[in-house]
Write a structure and sequence with these properties.
- By secondary structure, this protein is α/β, with parallel strands linked by helices.
- It has 2 domains: about 5-30 and about 295-405, Alpha-Beta Complex (Aspartate Aminotransferase, domain 1); about 40-295, Aspartate Aminotransferase, domain 2, CATH 3.40.640.
- It is about 40% helix and about 15% strand.
- It has a 7-stranded mixed β-sheet with strand order 4-10-9-8-7-5-6, with helices on both faces. A 4-stranded antiparallel β-sheet has the order 13-14-17-16, with helices on one face.
- A hairpin with an 8-residue loop joins strand 13 and strand 14.
- The longest helix is centred in the first third of the chain and has 21 residues, at about 60-80.
- The termini are far apart.
- The structure holds ligand 7TS.
């Protein structure tokens, strides 16, 4: 099977518009992807027909909402091949998922002198929560170096790993460079010294098949809004044993078993980590996003995007003075670049005039940009609905902007 691009595109109403008098070319999918009609309609259908609070009513609407809400947990379990449904925790997104782990894991498993390893190419949301955790418990944050191509240097990782390593937290795919990291190897090496591993999958789940059991990941996090789903809902996968041994993150309704003024006992998984009324509508709509991805085929999505990245790389490199930041051997969905000494913001502004949406700046990876000694990049990031014609528009746009600004 391959991609029927017109059929795929026609499912995304937002793409069919002009920006500044030019057809929209949306290449900011790393920040957030657009939504197919079925996701948008799911939100409307839910609020028009099924809305009530979940897990607490005997009435029909509450049961309907609960069934639809819980059915998505099963879909997510299948999407990433988790062993148990209760290992899927609903969060607001990747950021909240990482904060949950850093906070709860830290309380039980981090002591003074322990170490947490992250890589040079982490998103701020996979840096700051660990800094906060280390500060709180007297642990040390260490950074795994990368090479100029934007690849983790595995020999350096080996040197950093020790009996003191309690947690290794790295992304599966870098949002700023597109590098696909060897997480399988990272996990197996970390486990040999008894460390847990959290994988930030915000940029991988939308583009490739992920199997958390095959990876043997302890924690795996991602956001619905980067995978054709709504904002405000994300997933924390955690191995049952870890989640059982970790204390709750937030206190409140839903996460309790029994409450007295003296003492509270906690609900079982996954509810122990889901205090308060959850994001019901967006969770249900995430189910439609997963249906969309499964129907197109996750491998087809990845292959199509790879073809776009390869084509764009080839064509962009023909432009005088253009350099691509991040040339990892294995790359997905992202191209970051600079042209001469043109500031990324200026380039982005002219591209917007031409209807082309890219992201410019540090992409929430300031330490990585500092490492490269650059203020930021222009980033084109692809989704399944992008076309080769759009790559051509980008390339022409960059040429034009370079001429104007150069
Ligand atoms: N981790 C990675 C690798 C990301 O790319 C992002 C968001 C996050 C974590 C945070 O996800 P959130 O859904 O909780 O915000 N990345 C980007 C980006 O590249 N441009 O805008 C957001």
């Amino acid at each position: 099977m391959s991609i029927h691009i017109e059929e795929v595109r026609s499912q995304f109403p937002i793409l069919d518009q002009e920006i500044n008098g030019k057809p929209l070319v949306y290449l900011d999918n790393g920040a957030s992807s657009q939504k197919p009609s079925r996701v948008i309609e799911s939100l409307k259908h839910y609020y028009e027909n099924d809305h009530a609070n979940v897990h607490r009513g005997v009435h029909t609407l509450s049961q309907r909402a609960t069934d639809a809400f819980e059915a998505v947990r099963k879909q997510v379990q299948q999407l990433i091949n988790a062993q148990h449904e209760h290992e899927i925790i609903y969060t607001r997104g990747t950021t909240e998922a990482i904060n949950l782990v850093a906070s709860s894991f830290g309380k039980v498993f981090i002591e003074e002198g322990y170490e947490v390893l992250i890589s040079t190419m982490e998103h701020h949301s996979n840096i700051v929560p660990w800094q906060m955790m280390c500060e709180e418990w007297g642990a040390k944050l260490k950074v795994i170096p990368i090479n100029e191509r934007g690849e983790i240097i595995m020999d350096e990782f080996d040197l950093l790993l020790s009996g003191k390593t309690a947690m290794v937290a790295v992304n599966h795919v870098s949002n700023a460079l597109g590098s696909i990291n060897p997480v399988h190897e990272i996990i197996s090496k970390a486990h040999k010294v008894g460390a847990a591993v959290l994988i930030d999958g915000a940029q991988s789940v939308p583009h490739m098949k992920v199997d958390v059991q095959d990876l043997d990941a302890d924690f795996y996090c991602f956001s619905a809004h980067k995978m054709y789903g709504p904002t405000g809902i994300g997933i924390l996968y955690g191995k049952e044993q870890w989640l059982n041994d970790m204390p709750p993150y937030h206190g409140g309704g839903e996460m309790i078993d029994k409450v007295t003024f003296e003492e509270t006992t906690y609900n079982s998984l996954p509810f122990k980590f889901e205090a308060g009324t959850p994001n019901i509508a967006d969770t249900i709509a995430l189910g439609e996003a997963i249906n969309f991805m499964n129907e197109v085929g996750i491998e087809n999505i990845g292959n199509w995007e790879k073809a776009l990245v390869d084509y764009a790389t080839e064509e962009l490199l023909k432009i005088d003075g253009l350099r691509i930041i991040g040339a990892a051997e294995k790359k997905a969905s992202v191209i970051s670049f600079l042209v001469g000494d043109i500031h990324p913001f200026d380039m982005g502004t002219i591209l917007d005039q031409l209807g082309i949406a890219v992201r410019t700046g540090h992409h929430c990876t300031m330490p990585l940009m500092n490492w490269y000694g650059i203020p930021g990049t222009v980033r084109a990031s692809f989704a399944v609905y992008n076309t080769k014609e759009e790559v051509d528009v980008l390339v022409e746009g960059v040429k034009r902007a370079a001429k104007m600004l150069g």
